[in-house]
Design brief:
With 85 residues, the chain is mainly α. It contains three helices and no strands. The longest helix has 25 residues. The radius of gyration is 15 Å and the shape is elongated. The termini are far apart. 21% of the residues are buried.
């Protein structure tokens, strides 16, 4: 049997990644129910969590995708409130 490297278990990154994943799933549920802007807010919180995980793991792909997602969701929230004024 081979010893494969696995992601850390029960450390700070483990807690953040599972919390962020659940928050993103809530954002998806809110999106499917067309509940705006709360869907984008949950997604934003979730991608910030995954961005933190990427930084803790020094994983450039996670950092890149979640930094871009952060910008997209923040822009969407800003646009929602600018149009509402």
């Amino acid at each position: 049997m081979h010893d494969f490297k696995v992601t850390p278990k029960h450390d700070l990154s483990w807690f953040i990644k599972w919390t962020a994943s659940i928050i993103i799933l809530i954002g998806m549920l809110l999106t499917s129910a067309s509940i705006e802007p709360y869907n984008m807010m949950f997604h934003l919180i979730g991608v910030v969590g995954w961005l933190c995980v990427g930084l803790l793991w020094h994983d450039r792909a996670l950092i890149f995708i979640n930094a871009v997602a952060l910008f997209i969701f923040a822009s969407g929230i800003l646009r929602f409130y600018m149009v509402s004024i």
